Amino acid sequence: NGRGRSAVTEDAVYFDFHTHILPGADHGSRGAEDTAAEMRELYELGAGIAVATPHFYPARTNIEKFRAVRNAALVRFEKIRQPFWCPTCVGAEVAVCQSLERMPELDELCIDGTSVILLEMPFARWMDSILDTVAAIRDAGFTPVFAHLDRYEPEAAEALFALGMKGQLNLSALGTRNPWKRKRLLGWIDGRSIVAVGSDIHTSSVRDDRAETERGISALGEERLEYLRHSTADLLRGAKIYDFRPKKSDG
């Protein structure tokens, strides 16, 4: 039954900043059954809050269409909600392309209620123009956080850190059996360049890394988990939260 910890925020093991849990919003969940399984897994892992971050690809869609799909998925999500599901915020995982900062209504892709935007960098070598784009997004008043920086060349991630940028790591990467990689990733956390972690959970037909995710949580240790809960809570200050738990009685 996994870690079996309460999903109540104050008893959280971690806050999950990167998930694909909205039914039908992207390939992360095909529908209610996938979403229910994902939310059960997050509960068992001890997630005290989840940020739903469906993919946004500027070359494939626009914000109006994306918003319609995400809103419809959120309606389905609320209809199937269960009391034990952890509180949830809604944003997007935004693929970075040149001149993204010029896109109208870019704020619609932020975590609802905040200026925080989860950006996914290209997997090809980054051109200077891409770095200029993310700098322009920050200069426009957004708070960029870079998704799964464990998936890129370490030197590329560290170039972002040198610009004062902050990132998110996938818990499964922290569960690596490569001690050198784990040491480097933990060093990024200790250096405060990483401000969030996430499961990046998808339906298991896309990825199934539960064991690595559990090892990653263990590898962090309580002191780092405490830091990450606080740093992620800071990012989510003011965010709209969908909380399905029963309300505590006053008496």
Structure characteristics:
six-stranded parallel beta sheet; alpha/beta; 251 residues; disordered N terminus
Largest sheet: number of strands, sense, barrel closure: 6 strands, parallel
Spatially, the strands of the biggest sheet line up as: 3-5-6-7-8-9
Global morphology:
globular
- Low-confidence segments, given as residue ranges, are 1-8
Q: What separation lies between the terminal Cα atoms?
A: 33 Å
Hey, roughly how much beta strand do the residues contain?
Answer: 15-25%
What is the helix tally? 7
Helix content range of the residues, please? 25-40%
How many strand segments? 9
The succession of helices and strands, N to C, reads EHEEHEEEHEHEHHEH
Radius of gyration: 17 Å
Overall structural class, as computed from helix and strand content, comes to alpha/beta
What does this protein look like?
The protein is 37% helix and 16% strand. It has 251 residues and is of the alpha/beta class. Helix 6 (179-190) packs parallel to helix 7.
